[in-house]
Amino acid sequence: MRHLMSPMDFSVEELEELMDVASDIKDHPSKYAHACDGRILATCFYEPSTRTRLSFESAMLRLGGSVLGFASADSSSAAKGESVSDTIRIISGYADICAMRHPKEGAPLVAASKSLIPVINAGDGGHQHPTQTLTDLFTIRSLEGRIANLTIGLCGDLKFGRTVHSLINALVRYPGISFVLISPEELRVPSYIRDDVLKANGVPYTEVERLEDAMPDLDILYMTRVQKERFFNEEDYLRMKGFYILDKEKMELGKKNMLVLHPLPRVNEIAVEVDDDPRAAYFKQAKYGVYIRMALILKLLEESEC
Fold this sequence. Notes:
This protein is α/β, with parallel strands linked by helices. The protein has helices spanning 12-27, 51-62, 84-91, 107-114, 130-144, 162-171, 191-199, 211-214, 234-241, 248-251, 282-304, and strands at residues 40-45, 66-70, 97-102, 119-124, 151-155, 178-182, 205-208, 220-223, 259-261. The protein is globular, with a radius of gyration of 20 Å. The mean pLDDT is 91.
């Protein structure tokens, strides 16, 4: 039984094949309209989600399948104390594949160990969000034409951001990638990412505090939210928060073909005025997430039948 707990569960070759399928789905949707006729996806979301849950549901429906599940722990038997292990055993008899989001790190892995159907980690605490990383990779490849020889700026909360950590891990496997890490000192990339991933793989990177200093060199700017609660005092937060609001003025410093990505939701870190800039790709990025999840569902279902 094949599951997806981390983007590292797939080799680079498998990722390329997955993105090839996603690209074909994007270009020829009718070809896949009945690929999952009679199949059922269970969405087991123990915490609220908009993009991820609806993206999975849209993916399965576009493949001709059906969806069942719950959108919060309060609306499931978890509210009565049922364990994840017991829930997945039950779900295995109701559905053919499961997407699970859980606030506890490792919960989807526990579910996978007891499941009779493929389990997809749709986000577990601050640990992993592999399908967001697949979405990011597919968006980069689709819009840039490659995932290689790119300078990528990661901006905001680089210490606690699970999307940033997963993306770094995935990108270091591609040639010619370099990073500009843009954050306040309090929210820098953790040492285990810096030492065990970037340095260990010989990937060049620089760390800067001001977004303006990084903009001219970037092929891709990946924005994340700086959260007030991550700072030790309000003075430091107020000193830094303006650095990480992307607006028209800062966009003028960037390359004409630079892409701006964001895992969403945004709060105020990207001004609404940037939405009309052709380099703003975050809403397109969310749409591409449906295509890559369609391809992922097809792959896991196919391999579960082998």
